[in-house]
User: Fold these one by one.
Assistant:
Number 1:
Amino acid sequence: MMKKVTMFVWNHFTNDARVMRECLTLSQNGYDVNLIGIANKKIPEAIPYEEINQNFKVHRVPMYPKTLEYYFKRKKRVTAITAGATALMSPLLYKYSKSSLVLMLSTLIATGVILKNNSLRQNTVKLIRSLRMILKGIQLKADIYHSNDLNTLAQGVICTILHDSQLVYDSHEVQTDRTGYNPDTVKLVEKNLIKFAAETIVENATRAKKHEELYGYLPKTLHNYSKFYEIDKVSDVDLYEMLDIDRSKKILLYQGGVQFGRGLNVLINSMECIENGVLVIIGDGKLKADLMEETSKRDLTDKVKFLPKVPLEDLPSYTKQAYIGYQVLQNTSYNHYSASSNKLFEYIMAEVPVVSCDFPEIKRVVEEENIGLIVDTEKPESIAAATQKIVDNPELRNELSMNCRSAKFKYNWENEKEELLNIYKELSN
C-alpha cells in the first residue's frame, strides 16, 4: 500500500524548483503526494487544484478571506450598509438586549481596527490562511507530513499530532537569520516546534553545523541541485533578437529573485567598466523597478537588459544563451553566507561558467571543479575584472565550460534524490 505524504509550502507553488523536484521524486517512487500551497486569483497558474501526475496533486488555499476581498472591492457599499444596519439595530438592541448591543459594537470596532491597521490585518489574514492549511492537511490524512520552512511548521505539527503521523521539517533557509524576522522569536518558535519532527533536513553542511549549534543535533542534508539534462537537447531562445542586443556582444546573465542582498546594484555598476558584454537580468522582485531606474540614470540601457520571471521548465533555454552566469550574493546575513545557491547549479547544468561570491559552500564548488572565478561582491571593479578576463579569453571560457560539463554529472538531482528517498525509507520502516 502506498504511503501518503502531505506537504506544506508558504507560496503559490508556481516556481518552486526544489519542492517540485522533491514531490515528483516521491510520487514516482511509491508515495501518494498531496501538496498544500496558496492560491492567487492574480496568478493564472495558482489555481485551487492541480493534478501534476497520478500520485501528485496540488491543493491551494485562498490567499485572502472572501469577506476581505469583497470588502476591498466594494468598500463604500459595505461601509454604508454597515452604518445603516448599526443605526437601525442599535436602538432595538439597547431596548431588548444590551449585552448583544455591546457584542455587536465590540465586533465592529475590532473589525475596524483590523482593517485600518496594516500589520494587524496582514497577521490576521496569515492566521486564517494557516488555519485553512491545517484543515486541508487534516482532511488529507497522511502517514508523513512534510513542512517546508518555518512558516508551515506549525501546520505540520498540528496535523501530525492529530493523526499520530510522522513529520519531516525541510528548512530551506537559516530561519534565525532571515531579513525581517526577529531572531530570538524565531529561535524560540523553531526550537519548540522541531521537537515534533521525526527528521530535519537542511540545504548543506554549513547550515547543518549551524543548526547543530542552535539546537544540539545534526540534521540531514539535501542539496538543491538542478535536474540533469543535456544542454544540446534544450531548445534555443534568441535573446539577441528578443532584447535587440548586438550579436558581437556576450550575454552576461543573472537569473533569480531581484531582491536585496543579491549584489545586483553592484553588478549593474560594474557594467560601466565591462566591454563587449550585455548584462541580462531574468527575474522579478521588490528591487526591479529601482534597478531599472538606476540603469536609466546611469545611461546603461544598452548594456543592461531586463526580462520577467521565466517558467521553470523554460528557463534552461534562456540559461544556455549566457557566456557567463553570475551568483554574486552579498554577506548581508548568515543565511546568504551559508547558501549553496540553486542558481549556481543551474549554470553548471547549462555548462555556463560563473563569476561568484566567495562564500564557503559556493566557493568550494567553484574552486574544486574550476568552473569560474571568485570575486569580491562589494566591489564593482572586482566583478568587472573577472568578467572581462573571461570575455577576453575564449580559451579560458571554453575550459571553464568543459569543467561545468564534467561537474554536472556530480551535482545533479538524479544523484541527490537518493538522499531524500533514504530519509523517507527510514521513516516508512
Number 2:
Amino acid sequence: MGRYIDDILQPGEKVLYSSNLHRIIYWKAILAWIAACTLLVLSRTTLAENLILLYLASAAVVTLAALYWSLAAWFRRWTTETDVTNLRVIYKEGFITRKTFELSVDKVASVGVEQSILGRILNYGDVVIENMGNDKQKIETIAAPLNFRNAITAR
C-alpha cells in the first residue's frame, strides 16, 4: 500500500513537510506492559500457590490488553498521514473507512497549536487550522506541531 499523498499529488505540487502522530499514543500500551511485567515478577516472589495463580492469570489478561493497545496504536499511526504541499494541507486517517480533509494553503486564515506541559516536553500537540469560511479542522497528537504550523504559514 502506497502513501495516500503519492496518489493525489497534482502536477507541479511538491510535498514540503510530512508529519505523523506522536509516539505518545502508545501510552496505554506501555503502562499495560509495565503492569504485566510487574505482575509476572510478583508471581515469582511469593510462595502461596493461590497467589501465584492469581498473579499469572492477571498478567495474562493485562498482556492481552497491552497487545491490543499496542496493535491499535500502531495501526492508527500507520494509517494516518499529515502533509503540507506547496498548494494544500492534507490529512488522512483510516484504512478501510477513510477520513480526509484537504485545504488550500491560500484559504488558511490561521493556524493554532495547543500543547500541554507534557506535550511541550515531548514535542507533540494539536494543530487547529481555520480557513477563510471560519471552519476549523483539528489534527490531534501530531509530532512536532510547531514545525507543522511553520510549514503551513511560511511562504
Number 3:
Amino acid sequence: MGLYSVAPIRLAEPLNQSSWELIKAVAIELPGASLDSARFGYADITCRSDLFGFPDYLELLVASDKQHLNVRSQSLIGFYDLGVNRRRVELLRSRLVERGIAID
C-alpha cells in the first residue's frame, strides 16, 4: 500500500445482493453523502463537508473474490484534507463491522 492507501475492508461473507444493499445504505448514511450511481459491487458517492460544502469523491468496489471491499475517498478540490477522507473510510469500516457486514 502507498502512503495514502487504506487496506480493503474484509467482508464477513462473500458479497450477495442483500449484503450489497446494506453496504450502500451504510455508505450513504455517512455525513454529507449522496449516491451518484451504483451497480452490483460498485458505488460512486459524493460526500460534502459540513463547513464549506466541499465535495469529496467516495468510491466502493468489491474485489473479484467478493470478500473484500476496496474503498477510495479523495478530495476533489485542493491537495490536503486534514485527514477527513481517511477518517471517512475508517468510519465506514467501523460501521460495517458494527453491523456484522465486515470483520476486523
